[in-house]
Specification:
By secondary structure, the protein is of the alpha+beta class. It has helices at residues 2-14, 67-75, 86-94, 96-105, and strands spanning 35-38, 41-48, 55-59, 63-65, 115-123, 126-131, 137-139, 145-147, 150-152.
Length: 153
């Protein structure tokens, strides 16, 4: 029953979002926390530009892996899906509670206080990651952290 409810809620949330490469713009534009489908992947809007028709969407899917595997995982989404920058992750951590409320409502994994990989390397052995609980940045590649892909729309 719970799966049916989550599926029905997801369908409602995806209303107004296109299944093709582009999203249909809802009346009044997008808002942070809107759920949608972009380029065949479900995501949540994490940034809206002033035109309210463009911004950044973050994947609902996540995994935990090394930085090298994170780069491959994000690129497997196709198109321009990629690892987020440090600045994008810090901005996401600033709105984490709002995003977590929406993700939780739809039965999706929340960001919580997890540490997420960024796209930015510090040097050969280090890459930046961001702690969602505090917004702190770190730079070690020799560990596993969470990853979500982002894409512009």
């Amino acid at each position: 029953m719970k799966r049916v409810l989550v599926f029905a809620l997801t369908l409602l949330a995806l209303a107004g979002c296109g299944e093709s490469g582009e999203m249909d713009v809802p009346e009044g534009g997008f808002s942070v926390g809107d759920m949608c489908t972009l380029k065949g992947r479900q995501g949540i809007v994490v940034r809206v530009n002033t035109d309210r028709k463009s911004g950044l969407v973050m994947s609902l899917d996540e995994t935990r892996c090394s930085w090298d595997d994170a780069v491959v995982w994000a690129s497997s989404f196709g198109g321009d899906w990629r690892l987020p920058t440090v600045q994008e992750l810090q901005a996401i951590s600033n709105i984490r509670e709002k995003l977590d409320a929406v993700l939780s409502e739809y039965g999706m994994p929340v960001l919580g206080s997890k540490v997420y990989w960024s796209s930015e390397e510090y040097d050969f052995d280090c890459a930046w990651n961001v702690d969602m609980g505090y917004g702190y940045t770190y730079y070690r590649k020799n560990s596993t952290h969470y990853v979500r892909a982002v894409s512009a729309f």
